[in-house]
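INTERNAL AUDIT FORM
Audit reference: QA-55
Scope: verify that the stored structure record matches its stored sequence.
Auditor: D.O.
Record contents follow.
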Amino acid sequence: MNYIGFFLIACWLLCNPLSAAAQASVHFKERAEVSDQRIVLADIADIQPADSATEPLGQLPVGTAPAPGRTKELYVVTVINSLRNRPEAADVDWQGSQTVVVERKAVTLSPEQMQAMIAAYLKENSSILPKAEIRFSSVRAPEAMVLPAGTLTWKITPSRPGIIGSTSFIIALFVDDKPAGACTLRGRLEVVAEVLTAASTLRKGDLVTEENVALQRQDVSGIENPLFAKEDILGHQVARTVAPGTILKSDYIVLPPVIKEGEMVKIIARKGAMQLSTSGLARATGRLGETISVKNISSNKMIHCRVDGPGMVSVEF
């Protein structure tokens, strides 16, 4: 290489020192916004050159973020001192603001949004009652909640497993699939549906007919096991006296007896594959599936038999 070539290389090195080319520049911002719980250097400063070589420098932790929606002030000299012994921060040119105000990103969940969550949940679960309109009126809603920024999901739990009769709902909140708190809404749940009611006074032992029951839209939120279809109970018997307008429940209605006291019945006696039959005299009125006392005509003994149908009973021996 000639003298002119050496001279040109020397000039280039003087104008572009290797140490300067390798040096990173960190310029602190006056304000910064963060989403995570941890603050890293790249959150509060612009780092040059922005390449893979300076990426580890930008990921150095410098503090804990404030609560969602809140701010905190970082002193730059404290940040620099905390990083001086880190190899990633060697040969760094520190520049910019003397302090950095850090704000944590947040979303606010209003009481109205909580109420809307409950309404959507009830709509999704409206199939628990046929043709029911379910409404929840909140009488005590919590204050607005400030949550971390991110994808918000939730899980709702009613105070009663079947929803009906619930007086409160708990909303468990998650941000990016991580627990973010919970709130409770208390109020009154209305479940309005077409249910069967007594059209007139129904007395114990009466048979249900088309005329003595009627469908009405009523609030059944406090009623357990209300009845909805006439065809399910026509010809059944009333188990207790019911006043007009009363919502009929499943325990108000029973199957009519298929065997009456004093009636002659056929007794089927079974033991394994063997089966015998004889005649008996019912000593009690019985409904399908019930056990009644029957007098065996042949032996003149009393036995307990299961009612299998009109005039038919059975016993295992």
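Auditor finding: record pair retrieved intact. The radius of gyration is 40 Å.
Action required: none
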